[in-house]
């Protein structure tokens, strides 16, 4: 098969296909261009809702925190359960109550330091915080799933430049992890093995889509990537949730996260926007055979700091499509420097 001609690739993790049109990568662009983020932020901003010692939007005061800082979102999308609520009855208009907890995790007091600019130990502290939150929220009987994620950059809808992530813990398993659960369980049933253990071993052996790796984690542009520089980070060993990671694995994950995000920033010499999140095994008490802990990075930028990919037209109505192949994207990420451009 000729990968230089239009073809479809299958995503075995969510069961969806992506259309790849490599011959189209050089098409001209006269559409929207994005603004690039402010290059130089202060270490402390007295007007920032997330900086230490400042008052937040709804009146709560941040303490003078020194490491990662967690607080309950002042505008939560989910609320604690109301016992008497019932699903609506009509089969054409189904609705169910949803319950949960929303939190914000500031990476550090530094208003100006994103993950790729932080020291390895400090990224490790952020991962341990996500892990402790997963354990705490996951132990609650009303919580079925814990989603840890970061929206980075104004183009991703991030509302505040102070580096932070969010946690939404929900009663039900959301759509994306629910699809992955079905696919991983089906693979497990069919082969007796684990889908992402097998994919990780295959990618490590082939190397052409690998962006960063160490003893514990592997980052690669998946064969079925939809977003131009999408990256999947998988644990080399079979683990299912953050709290299971050993101290060494946390260090390995911090290292791979730094390697990936440094290369992202170096690609267009701009603070690279993305949505990133972990897919951890749900905590609703059901069995999830073949579930493998991983993180997705979905960055929107395509050919420069100002031209993004839009998921519109055929993609909204048909299926996702990409121009650049996964192999080319991985090669470009490997070719840029492993040292952050601001720290050279
Ligand atoms: P983004 O990661 O999309 O920027 O969202 C930041 C979150 O921080 C958002 O969910 C919350 C918003 O509700 N927030 C507070 O809880 N308190 C504030 O004072 C500002 C922002
Ligand atoms: Zn700040």
Annotated CATH homologous superfamily: HIT-like
Mean pLDDT equals 95
Query: How is the biggest beta sheet arranged?
Result: 9 strands, antiparallel
| Annotation, overall tally of beta strands | 12
Which structural class do you get from the secondary structure elements?
alpha+beta
Total individual domains: 1
Strand order within the widest beta sheet: 3-4-6-5-10-11-9-8-7
Beta-strand content estimate: 15-25%
Number of helices: 6
Helix content: 10-25%
CATH third-tier fold name: HIT family, subunit A
Q: What is the radius of gyration computed over CA atoms, rounded to a whole number of angstroms?
A: 20 Å
Residue stretches low in confidence (pLDDT < 50, at least 5 long) are none
The name of the CATH architecture is 2-Layer Sandwich
Taken from the alpha-carbon principal axes, the silhouette is: globular
Give the cofactors and ligands: 5,6-dihydrouridine-5'-monophosphate, zinc ion
Write the H/E string, N to C.
EEEEHEEHHEEEHEEHEH
The CATH C-level name is Alpha Beta
End-to-end Cα distance: 42 Å
Q: How would you describe this protein?
A:
The chain has 344 residues and is α+β, with helices and mostly antiparallel strands. Helix content is 24%, strand content 18%. The strands form two sheets. Strands 3-4-6-5-10-11-9-8-7 form a nine-stranded antiparallel beta sheet, sandwiched between helices. A three-stranded mixed beta sheet has the order 1-2-12, with no helix packed on it. Helix 1 crosses helix 4 (247-268). The chain is globular. The mean pLDDT is 95. Bound molecules: 5,6-dihydrouridine-5'-monophosphate and zinc ion. Zinc ion (ZN) binds at residues 45, 48, 50-51, 111, 162.
């Amino acid at each position: 098969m000729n990968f230089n001609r239009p073809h479809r690739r299958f995503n075995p993790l969510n069961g969806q296909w992506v259309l790849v049109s490599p011959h189209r990568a050089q098409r001209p662009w006269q559409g929207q261009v994005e603004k690039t983020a402010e290059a130089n932020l202060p270490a402390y901003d007295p007007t920032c809702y997330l900086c230490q010692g400042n008052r937040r939007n709804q009146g709560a005061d941040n303490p003078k925190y020194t490491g990662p800082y967690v607080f309950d979102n002042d505008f939560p999308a989910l609320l604690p359960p109301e016992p008497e609520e019932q699903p609506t009855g009509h089969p054409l208009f189904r609705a169910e109550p949803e319950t949960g907890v929303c939190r914000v995790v500031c990476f550090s007091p530094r208003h100006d330091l994103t993950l790729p600019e932080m020291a390895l130990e400090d990224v490790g502290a952020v991962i341990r915080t996500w892990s402790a939150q997963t354990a705490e929220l996951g132990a609650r009987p009303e919580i079925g799933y814990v989603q840890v994620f970061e929206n980075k950059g104004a183009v991703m809808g991030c509302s505040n430049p102070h580096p932070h992530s969010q946690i939404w813990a929900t009663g039900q398993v959301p759509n994306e992890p629910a699809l992955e659960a079905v696919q991983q369980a089906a693979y497990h049933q069919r082969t007796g093995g684990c889908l992402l253990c097998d994919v990780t071993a295959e990618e490590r052996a082939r190397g052409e889509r690998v962006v960063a790796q160490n003893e514990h984690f592997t980052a690669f542009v998946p064969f079925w990537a939809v977003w131009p520089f999408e990256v999947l980070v998988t644990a080399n060993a079979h683990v299912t949730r953050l709290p299971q990671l050993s101290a060494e694995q946390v260090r390995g994950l911090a290292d791979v996260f730094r390697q990936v995000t440094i290369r992202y920033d170096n690609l267009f010499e701009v603070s690279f926007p993305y949505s990133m999140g972990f897919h951890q095994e749900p905590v609703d008490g059901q069995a999830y055979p073949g579930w493998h802990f991983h993180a997705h990075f979905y960055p929107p930028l395509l050919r420069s700091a100002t031209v993004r990919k839009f998921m519109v037209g055929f993609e909204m109505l048909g299926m996702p499509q990409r121009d650049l192949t996964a192999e080319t994207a991985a090669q470009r990420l490997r070719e840029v420097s492993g040292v952050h451009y601001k720290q050279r």
